[in-house]
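Sample entry (335 residues):
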Amino acid sequence: MVTLPKVNELGFFEIRLESIGGLGANLAGKMLAEAGVMGIGLNGVSFSSYGSEKKGSPVKAFIRFCDMETRIRDTSPIERPHVVGIFHEALAKTINVVSGIYEDSIVLVNSTKSPEVLKENLKLKAGIIAVVDATGISLDEKNRVNMAMLGALFRLCPFLDAEFMKGVIRKSLEKKYPNAVQPALNTFERGYNEVAFHEFKLPSGDAMPEFVRHDTPVLGYETQPLGGLVINPGNSILKDLSISRAGMMPDFDDAKCIHCAACDNVCPDFCFVWDELPDKKGRPQMFLQGIDYQYCKGCLKCVQACPTEALTDLRETDGYADEHRVPHRFDLATN
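Predicted structure, serialized as tokens:
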């Protein structure tokens, strides 16, 4: 009989996955639960929380495990996870992805940064920070980020059977997508083998932040939100779509640009910045100045539309977007 490494007051070992639509966190949660229930005989459940189901929007997946004698009567979102899997590092800009963790919780991050840097970025006091370059692995193996993250999660949850998970991967893909089986297995194994982790102890005399449960109040005349109040404006200078990029971004080469505006015609978020300047004959013409990466979600439609390869796809590295961003004029006017 498998013994879980730790459980909460209800007898549950809980995992929360923080991601964006398109990276496969929902499927990863289902496969994790299947590996625990069918593979090693645990009782378990998996469910997800997401909004409009579009690529790039925030997604959470929840997995609960317990022994077969414990009944799962709780299907509320997991607020105090023993393991957190962060599929997209940039989510920390707008979401507290490590909320509710314990002093000894494991935080797995899809990143190329060191655990020490991530500890500062995530404002962690203590815990085990695990790092895997899931995006890089998936690009190398021509597969999905979720397979690399699954491999790392299995390494961090040794009570789960990695060989059973490989069987689940084969069963899921071999009938419809036989050519995808080996890349998926390679990605899973690399995630398992390449994850690195470091434990940070709580400083002497210090304490973890007090956990406050965010229960939703019953709506009434005293608690209902003000009508017509837009708390998070969707189309303004405040919007930051950079958390939607899944590892790739367009790179602009001014020397190859013919200013045809093919990129601007297909861009869904008006990322391209133009200015009216005189051409060689002194006539006014619109010239492309660059990309405002704050509004770019990395769909790469512009790269496909560009006829001169002035726009190419580039693996995003930390700080590149901020260094090469060309702000829109309305942004400059407000700074």
